Amino acid sequence: MAPSPLGWEEIKISIALSAISALAVALRFTSRLVKRAKLGLEDWIALASLVSISAMLSQLILWVVLGNSAKHSSALSVGEITVFNKIFLANQFTYAVTSTLIKLTIILFYRRVFITPEFRFVANTLSIGCILWAIVALLGFALQCRPLSRQWDSTVSGTCDNQIAFIEGIQGINIFLDVSIFAVPWPMTWNLHGHWQYKVSLSGIFLLGGLVVGASTYRMIAITQIEPDDMTYTIYSSEIWTFVEPCIGLVCACAPMIRSLVPVAYAATKKSAFSSSPSSSAYCKSCSKNSHMNEIQRDGCGDMARLEVPPSSYIVADSVNSVDDTVHSRRSDQVTTTSIEMV
Q1: What is the DSSP letter of 331?
Q2: Do residues 57 and 247 touch, judged by C-beta distance below 8 A?
Q3: How far apart are the C-alpha atoms of 231 and 234, rounded to whole Å?
């Protein structure tokens, strides 16, 4: 049986989102290579997230083609509904893994940006919360029907819990984690010393996290609209947003690295103009010798706005091959040193 028009729409949307996610990860690794920066754990987790999203895409295509998703249950055979339920279960596991990997990618990036002990404690707490959420979700999906085969074969003797209610509960916690991850960097960002334009730029990147919160929230709304008697058809909106949410999350996780490619590309277009001018060439040489300028500033030879940070505030944050800008966050009676890695 051929997919329905809604089914084809699902496939097209999912392929487009997968392509955007793949491009974001490719640009992330390109940025690392261009900057000659050491690949961090968060980069490999981002790559693992892309692999997991690819698995979700394969499941969704099978869900539509073999499971006849987006069609009314009354029009399907028992065998087709069985296939639908099997893929539905597999998708729950994959979604939990994918969502957790993307959250950890973002949190690990925060840890490299803000190195204060207080913030790292918050980041570690969020990481533990995300891992615990994944464990609870995976165990819940595995144990919601006993035996598990009753999930797709109602003729098997056993019991099943209210699956939709459990998914709603898990999604509620997921939204809370997304909001927490979205909120934590804001106080640190605006306490940094530097140009307000830079703060706005950095905040704009973090603001993209609001899209993930919005997608998670809308997924919750879509889940509440699922009707158990006609799940194959009413699950359509939930399927779409189950795919939209992680794809947006991965793009947001890669956004800071993609941003760093902009001054590199801009500097490349201006290279000939700068090199033809003696004064510009001299300035570029002075830029390259200035240890108190960050990597992006040197790439643009002064075209980018500088962070006015006192030379005394520069420190070495870690031993990796990256250039860090260091700024001070002043609190009542102490100075907390915060390192911002220009990735």
Answers
A1: E
A2: no
A3: 5
Distance CA 117, CA 121 (A): 6
State the fold for domain 5-267: Rhopdopsin 7-helix transmembrane proteins (1.20.1070)
Q: Specify the higher pLDDT residue, 215 or 324.
A: 215
Q: Which two structure tokens, joined as six digits, stand for 286?
A: 């002075």
Q: Residue 338: what are its φ and ψ, rounded to 5°? A: -125, 130
The rounded distance, in Å, linking the Cα atoms of 10 and 62 is 11
Which residue has better confidence, 292 or 171?
171
161 in Cβ contact with 144 (< 8 Å):
yes
Enumerate the H helices of 73-225 as residue ranges: 78-113, 117-143, 163-183, 185-190, 196-207, 209-224
Predicted local confidence at residue 267, as pLDDT: 57
SS3 325: strand
The mean of the pLDDT values for the chain is: 80
Specify the 3-state DSSP secondary structure of 184: coil
Nearest in space to 193 (alpha carbons), one of 32, 337, 97, 7? 337
Q: What is the pLDDT of residue 12?
A: 96
* 206-240 per-residue burial string, b: 16 or more CB within 10 A, e: under 16: bebbebbbebbbbbbebbeebeeeebbbbbbbbbb
